[in-house]
């Protein structure tokens, strides 16, 4: 059974940092592309950052480029999203998701309905 569990969300002030973690079980990361998505109240889900199954290619939404970094630890089946210089507009529930096979990270981030498995989400609140 595949499970994705996010952690690391919380309340932070503008300019602060958080590191989100996504723990995977039931699948091998080397065979899956991984994405971090977010959804704020009243807004559509947005692909924030995605990573190819090889780990060699990444995608970042324009709104987070230079501030967020996606990474993975395949040995521990963990994927991270380091978020720096947080802004109130980053406030949202953040989800990790996986897509099987060789994937283009830009494609899976922009077409989030192609993901196979989703976590339950972790809430990030950035106060001004």
Average pLDDT level: 95
Uncertain segments are none
For the termini, the CA-CA separation is: 40 Å
The protein's oligomeric status is single chain
Based on CA atoms alone, the radius of gyration comes out at 13 Å
Number of helical regions = 1
Run of helices and strands: EEEEEEEEEHEE
Q: State the helical fraction.
A: under 10%
General shape: globular
**Number of E-state strands:** 11
3D structure, described in words:
By secondary structure, this protein is mainly β. Helix content is 5%, strand content 49%. It contains one helix and eleven strands; from the N terminus they run βββββββββαββ. It has one helix at 105-110; strands at residues 3-7, 10-13, 18-25, 32-39, 46-51, 58-60, 68-73, 78-83, 92-100, 117-118, 122-127. The strands form two sheets. Strands 2, 4, 5, 6, 9, 10 and 11 form a seven-stranded mixed β-sheet that branches. A four-stranded antiparallel β-sheet has the order 1-3-8-7, with no helix packed on it. β4 (32-39) and β5 form a beta hairpin. It is globular, with a radius of gyration of 13 Å. The chain starts with a strand and ends with a strand.
Keywords:
7-stranded mixed beta sheet; 4-stranded antiparallel beta sheet; 1 helix; mainly beta; 128 residues; 11 strands
Give the topology.
Blueprint: E1 3-7, E2 10-13, E3 18-25, E4 32-39, E5 46-51, E6 58-60, E7 68-73, E8 78-83, E9 92-100, H1 105-110, E10 117-118, E11 122-127
Parallel strand pairs: 2-11
Antiparallel strand pairs: 1-3, 3-8, 4-5, 4-9, 5-6, 7-8, 9-10, 9-11
